[in-house]
Predict the structure.
Amino acid sequence: MRNELSQWRVLQEHFESMRELHLRDLFKEDKGRAEKFRLEAAGWVLDYSKNRINQKTMELLHQLAKTCGVEQARDAMFAGEHINGTEDRAVFHVALRNTSDEPMYVDGKDVMPEVREVLHKMAEFSRKIRAGQWWGHTGKPIRNVINVGIGGSDLGPAMATKALGAYAQRDLRVRFVSNIDATALAENVRDLNPEETLFVIASKTFTTQETLTNARSARRWLLDSLKDTAAVARHFVALSTAADRVAEFGIDARKNMFRFWDWVGGRYSLCSAIGLGLMVSIGPERFFEMLDGFHAMDEHFRKAPMEKNIPMTMALLGIWYINFFGAETHAVLPYEQYLQRLPAYLQQADMESNGKSINKSGKRVTYSTGPVIWGEPGTNGQHAFYQLIHQGTRLIPADFIGFARSQNPLGDHHDKLMANLMAQTEALAFGKTQEEVLAEGVDSKDVPFRTFEGNRPTNTLVSKELTPFSLGALIAAYEHKIFCQGVIWDIYSFDQWGVQLGKVLAGKVLEEISSESEPELSHDPSSNWLIKWYRENRKT
Ligand code: F6P
């Protein structure tokens, strides 16, 4: 077990000497702290000085990472080895954004020609749609593109399409339908003309219940209006690894399918064909700039020494709080409205990857693994949940993300936005002492309520501007952070067996709630009651 390593034990001892230290003192003691704990790569600066660490902490964390083989594991990923052990697959999303001329091999085969071929096909298709040269069945140009997919086949392109909204071709509507709740589809097609609407069915496996149900309903919606099954060819394309199932659905897999590969994990698939909706929205050139940003951070992750490595540093700080301070959650707080879906995207990336409790030897781990990821854009969150971060009983490490320039400069909005970001990290770190509160003339009985303990750790990630490049680099930094943490916890980060049980049970319950005759129920009493209640009440 990792927590039996001597490096872990040494960290535990070191923690005892650090737990009471205040960031106020750490900054007082070391005047060079802000420079010392600042890193730069791929257009991003990480200021991690407002963390409850000193030089020794970082050295010990680096030793732990080295002993756990983080660097070797990283090299194995880039070498296309089958590091996804439970599915015996390579983990090779880094090839999707390899914008260099270097080959990248999986099982002895250079995958780059196929990667480039699909990107080229996506670019041609996107250009046609954007130029109004992809005509629907009745000859009208497509103006609406609806991505139908869920999880990794939705969150990435949906998040990035919002994030890069400033670069969108505004006369095209690109929307995302994921939930099996029919409201999602109904509300998204309500105002659309089927003749001008194209559905992008995004599913790696092409078996996902939500996606296939929505896709079938979308086909019905289209055909109810166009009344000719031949229309499907002009109004449906697929993004998938499963050509046979795509063909079964009625989509011409040769012409209208954009493929990817089983070495692309769903939650790491934004740079694959799964990004088609995004590419339609921002155009191929901008999409390729995003790939450049991903690649720049990949290269930094691959080549920078551990002490200067942004993803490794973010990972190690997370380990420090989760495994030594006992933090259970991690907040992601973008001060950028366009990044409103980033926390949701990172929830899947992180929690589906590192929400594991069995180590690679099949043993239950005796330490905490992946945290609960959550967050909202600032400043909205300040007026909702920051109170708990400032004065609650829990320690909540947080990432503050901001930009020097706004995509929508308007008066002093951006200065105010960024002033809030800076003020929050300062207040969280340094708080306000009793003496300071008293000096403000506050009545002594009110002092405890107005005192801010501070010592709340934060990372600040800043970049000049939210561009496709900076977005790509930011996402890659988080991906690699998650990767490093998985290696340190000795878990398989690239499978997701935990979501299977619910899927299988849902199939059984569906049969029972839709059966004509009264089903014999063999669930627990609570579930039996719910099924009966639903059967009795669902009919109007
Ligand atoms: O929720 C489980 C999951 O397998 C995710 O990992 C994946 O991103 C999502 O379902 C969708 O899968 P698919 O792309 O195969 O439809």
